[in-house]
Every structure is written in structure tokens, then in C-alpha cells.
Specification:
15 helices, Histidine_acid_phosphatase, phosphatase activity, two-stranded antiparallel ribbon, globular, single chain, alpha+beta, 488 residues, Rossmann fold, binds 2-acetamido-2-deoxy-beta-D-glucopyranose, Acid phosphatase
């Protein structure tokens, strides 16, 4: 997509070699700014650290507050412009999809109500590019429950695909695209006008999970106002680096070990929440032997948070097919949410093997990002804006690699932005004069790694040396590390 001839990299490569001698490639524990990783506090407190779980709307005066249903992103109103000494050259964004129904695997054995999606269409069609007088109708899927079909799907019932971006999540996707246009066009005049030729300068990328395409379609209309065809770049199932889907045994093993009894912190959090599990199992009817629900709080979290984000009631225990008065109350839901937050911090930041787990399993995407930065610096790229539509497994791994100081579970629409700037004057000797600013939730990301620190104008040599050190230029180390033939 963005390839660079080797000769143009010579200057940068030597500068990178100089920086790599000093860059710190080690894992560093998250800092005291982390709100969610104190197990004692997570078990005892009420509420969820002031985080929002029940609406996509965050009031303007508190915008920036964690909102699971619709995470904060860069907007004109809050965006902090870089000093005028720096000129913006390239922007790459990665975001989690917006709010959706739960996954089928997260349904209770018998769900107390249907979840319908009759308020939208999932367009799915093929259209040949060689037009011999034939075109395609804009066909879309309508979920139906066959009147005659005696087989009932397990889990959720209703006309949605599970998962599917909800109508409200589609609205959030549109607003997200419109807001980023507000920043990168209206405010910075970096993206071209909507009526100009933006198509050669902008790339959109999705994963094999259809929900990312659903978000992309609304986002792109929000950003560019077009209802015309727009290509979405996608890698093949099974090897896609964005989701990620490629096989990485080392990464999988390290993540499994973090979430096992050999990690005493993990074991302790499960033991100390056994009563909470009993309560949730009783209401949901999930058997206590169902390992999917009991290895972590992930399933119950998804289950409850999706309901709350869509204004649906918390579920009650069904007795003889009817709602009883034993229900999940707010306090119980909050306790589940605090445990989910603790787990994400543990898996992606607190465990010392998290960096190796993430940099192997997400190393290819990181190397792709690095190659895009190099291409821009070498003057070999037409692309000025690349937007990746991805998942929490993608954004969590990236935050893990960047060693974010204050880890959270990246909620719906979570956004990480890489802005590449060129400094106009006063460059230090032997640097390319390029710098990177990284934003998470619209604010400058703070890393616990001392080489990265507050990621506000990090010399690109430092960031590239860090990425290269972990994953190799062009991902040269990833296959070896993933298969165990190079140690991590
Ligand atoms: C990385 O890939 C680019 C583009 O294919 C190539 O020009 C460059 O030489 C490669 N770098 C290394 C270190 O192999
Ligand atoms: C964790 O939270 C508990 C209870 O609020 C508090 O007493 C303790 O000091 C905290 N531990 C750390 C390391 O902050
Ligand atoms: C249980 O309660 C929910 C929410 O109030 C309601 O939508 C649903 O129809 C009820 N389910 C049954 C089986 O009565
Ligand atoms: C810049 O590079 C030259 C040649 O590699 C080297 O001699 C010099 O010490 C470098 N300067 C700095 C400040 O690193």
C-alpha cells in the first residue's frame, strides 16, 4: 500500500541506528495514574470510577470522561493544536468499532427479551467494476425468525446479527467521522475539502469482522459526506494484522499464562469474586461449569454493558419462563464492570509479560505503521490520512505496546491517533526533523516507558527504534518470536 525504495531511507536508517542504541525496550509497570488496577479498591468500591456506562452522550463540559458506550475522541472543541513550529504531514488513526449488540457467545442460556435491528439495513452486495450494462441493486439483510423452523438459535433472539452495530452505534460512527473532519479539515486545514479530490490521499482499512465495515460506512459519510462507493482495504482471514488474526503461538501462550492460576494476581481476583459469580450464575442460568463465563469477567461484562448502553433493562432471573424479582441490580453490574477494567489492566499492562505478548501478537500492525511513517518521511507516500477500524483486542494490544500509564478497557469507538509532524527549524543534529504526537481519547498519551514518556513530539527516530527493536523493521522479528525460534 505504501512502499518505499531502499535508497530513500538511508538518512533515516542511520539516524535510527543511532537512536536504537539508547531506546529502552523493556516493560515498565503502569504509573500511579492508573485508576483501575487496584484489586482491593475494585472489590470494595461502589460505582465505576466515574466512568459512563449508560449512554453514548457525554456532556460537553465533562467531555473526555471515560464512556464505555462511546469513548471520547479528538474534536474541534477540545483539540490542542501543536506549536506552529511543526507542520502536520501524516495522520494514522486506529479505533475500536462503535456500540453493538453483544456477541452470540455472550447471551444467557435463555434471554429474557428479544433484541431487534429492524431500524437499519445491513447492505451486502457485489458489483462488478467492468460495466457491460449490468449493475447491482443495493441489497441488504433483514434478520427473520422462520415461523416454521423448529430450531431456535442459542443465545440472543431477535432480528439482529449478533454482533451487529446498533442504529445508535451507527450514529456514533457518523459523528466520529464528522468530528475528525472538524479537527483535520476545519481546524487544521490538513485534510482537503469535501468537494476536492480526497480519494487519492485517504485510506480506510477494516478487519474481517463485518461490524468494522458497518462503522466505516457511516464514519466515511460523516467525514466526506459521500454516499458513493469507497474502497475499504482488508487483509485475508487468518493472517489479518489489524484484528489481529495471524497465528502467534508465543503471544497466545503468554496471554493464557497471564489469565491462569499460575498468575497469583489473576487467581486472587477470581477467588475473591466467587460470590459475585454465584449471584450472576443464579440470575443468568449460566452453569457454574461453563468455563467461557468463568475464566474471566469478559462475558458477563459484555452481556450487561451492551444492555445498558442501549437503554435495555438489566436482566432478571427467569422462573417458569417469567421474570422473577431476582434481578441484576446496578451495584452488581458496577462490580462486574470494575472487574472487567481490572482484568484489562492486568492482561495488557500490569503483567510483566504483557509487552512481549502484545508486541508479538500485534507486531505486524506496528511494523506496518512504522513503514507508513517511513514512507511519508521519504516523500514516497501519497496517503496523508489512514483510518483503521478495529476491535478492543487491537487497541488494547497497541496501548500495551505503547505502555500506556493509565490503562483502561478501550470502550466503544476508542481512538488512538498518530500525528507525524515535521519541525520547520532548529533541528538537533542527525535527526530527520520529524516528530510524532500520540493521542488516546483525544488527549496526549502518557507512556510508562521512559524513552517514550508523554508522547508529545517524540522524535520519530526514537519511536521507530522502539518499534524496530520490538518487532523488527518490516516485522522481520515477528514470525520468529511468534513461533519461538527467536526469544522474546
Ligand atoms: C522494508 O520494506 C521496504 C518496502 O518493501 C523495503 O524498501 C525496505 O528495504 C525494507 N527494509 C528492510 C530493513 O528490509
Ligand atoms: C489500593 O486500594 C486500597 C483501598 O482503597 C488502599 O488502601 C491501598 O492503599 C491501595 N493500594 C495502592 C497501591 O494504591
Ligand atoms: C422480562 O422483563 C423484560 C424487561 O422488563 C421484558 O422486556 C421481557 O419481556 C420480560 N420477559 C418475560 C419473559 O416476561
Ligand atoms: C552525527 O553523525 C555523525 C556521522 O555519523 C557523527 O560523527 C556525529 O557525532 C553525530 N552527531 C551527533 C550529535 O550525534
Amino acid at each position: 500500500m505504501l512502499s518505499v525504495p531502499q535508497t530513500s531511507l538511508l538518512v533515516l536508517a542511520s539516524a535510527t541506528a543511532a537512536a536504537s542504541a539508547t531506546v529502552d525496550l523493556k516493560w515498565h509497570a503502569p504509573g500511579s495514574g492508573n485508576k483501575v488496577n487496584n484489586l482491593t479498591a475494585a472489590l470494595k468500591s461502589d460505582g465505576v470510577y466515574g466512568f459512563i456506562y449508560d449512554s453514548s452522550h457525554t456532556p460537553d463540559k465533562t467531555y473526555g470522561t471515560y464512556n464505555w458506550c462511546n469513548m471520547p475522541h479528538a474534536r474541534k472543541t477540545e483539540y490542542v493544536k501543536a506549536s506552529s513550529d511543526y507542520e502536520l504531514k501524516y495522520v494514522e488513526v486506529i479505533q475500536r468499532h462503535h456500540k453493538r449488540t453483544p456477541y452470540a457467545s455472550n447471551a444467557f442460556p435463555v434471554e429474557p427479551y428479544e433484541w431487534n435491528c429492524d431500524d437499519q439495513g445491513l447492505y451486502y452486495f457485489g458489483r462488478p467494476f467492468t460495466n457491460k450494462g449490468k449493475s447491482a441493486a443495493e441489497t441488504y439483510w433483514v434478520g427473520v425468525t422462520g415461523d416454521i423452523n423448529p430450531f431456535v438459535p442459542s443465545g440472543w433472539i431477535g432480528s439482529c446479527q449478533f454482533p451487529q452495530i446498533s442504529a445508535a452505534g451507527l450514529d456514533d460512527s457518523w459523528t466520529h467521522g464528522n468530528d475528525l473532519y472538524g479537527v483535520y479539515h476545519d481546524l487544521l486545514n490538513f485534510l482537503p475539502s469535501r468537494n476536492k479530490d480526497w480519494r487519492k490521499k485517504v485510506v480506510f482499512r477494516v478487519t474481517n469482522n463485518q461490524i468494522t465495515s458497518q462503522v466505516a460506512s457511516m464514519f466515511i459519510n460523516g467525514m466526506w459526506g459521500t454516499t458513493e462507493s469507497v474502497p475499504l482495504v482488508i487483509q485475508a482471514k487468518g493472517v489479518d494484522s489489524l484484528e489481529p488474526q495471524y497465528t502467534c503461538t508465543t503471544g497466545s501462550n503468554l496471554f493464557s499464562t497471564i489469565q491462569s492460576s499460575s498468575n497469583s494476581a489473576w487467581e486472587q481476583h477470581l477467588t475473591k469474586t466467587s460470590d459475585l459469580f454465584k449471584k450472576m450464575d443464579d440470575i443468568s442460568g449460566v452453569p457454574s461449569t461453563d468455563s467461557g463465563f468463568h475464566v474471566s469477567w469478559d462475558h458477563y461484562y459484555d452481556n450487561l454493558s451492551a444492555r445498558k448502553c442501549h437503554g435495555k433493562p438489566l436482566p432478571c432471573k427467569l422462573v417458569d419462563g417469567k421474570n422473577s424479582s431476582t434481578c441484576v441490580d446496578e451495584e452488581t453490574a458496577n462490580a462486574v464492570f470494575r472487574m472487567g477494567q481490572w482484568e484489562y489492566s492486568q492482561i495488557y499492562r500490569d503483567a510483566s509479560s504483557s509487552l512481549a505478548a502484545s508486541s508479538t501478537s500485534y507486531g505486524v500492525w506496528v511494523a506496518e505503521l512504522a513503514s507508513h511513517l517511513r514512507a511519508v518521511i521519504a516523500g514516497k507516500s501519497k496517503t496523508i490520512y489512514l483510518h483503521n477500524f478495529a476491535h478492543d483486542g487491537s487497541t488494547s494490544r497497541l496501548l500495551s505496546i505503547l505502555q500506556i500509564d493509565d490503562m483502561v478497557w478501550p470502550g466503544m469507538g476508542s481512538e488512538i491517533v498518530f500525528e507525524l509532524y515535521q519541525k520547520k527549524k532548529n533541528n538537533a543534529e542527525n535527526t530527520s526533523g520529524y516528530y510524532v504526537r500520540v493521542l488516546f481519547s483525544g488527549k496526549t498519551l502518557k507512556s510508562s516507558n521512559p524513552s517514550l514518556g508523554l508522547m508529545d513530539m517524540v522524535p520519530v527516530e526514537t519511536l521507530l527504534a522502539y518499534f524496530d527493536g520490538l518487532v523488527g523493521e518490516n516485522a522481520s522479528l515477528v514470525k520468529g518470536k511468534c513461533s519461538g525460534s527467536i526469544s522474546v
